[in-house]
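User: Some background: our group keeps a shared notebook of sequences we're curious about, and every so often someone picks one and asks for a predicted structure to add to the entry. Today it's my turn. The entry only has the sequence so far, pasted here. Could you supply the structure so I can complete it?
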Amino acid sequence: MKRRTLLQGLLVGMLGIHLGANAASPVIEVYKSESCGCCSDWVKHLQNNGFKVNAHNVANPSDYRTRFGIPNELGSCHTATVDGYALEGHVPAAEIKRLLADRPKAKGLAVPSMPPGSPGMEGARTVPYDVLLVTSGGRYSVYKHYN
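Assistant: Of course. Here's the predicted structure to add to the notebook entry:
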């Protein structure tokens, strides 16, 4: 065993400190319809990118969009929350990680509709789409554009 690894292990054990980049990711709570295949594919995308996900099958996912402050015009087929932020639609895991690292003052992120080529909507056809940063008062701006 390398000396550095041994010392890190001792610090973790004695002080309860977590060292390195292996810090646990926050849990993403997803509210979706039971029969929605693309929602399930998005959940798999999140899991494949290191997130722990709790998926909840609900009768009306749009109720959660409203509850978490995402405007209806930005709606998609599922809504999620992570560490105080709302996520609407097929938001890529990379943008969720960026959001959690940057911690902007915002309601969350949204990918309106269900754009072909977005995570969970992969297939032969793709279209450009925007990931939107939703702020107070229903305002939003482009956070990341995908071709």
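Suggested note for the entry: The chain has a mean pLDDT of 87. The chain has one domain: 25-146.
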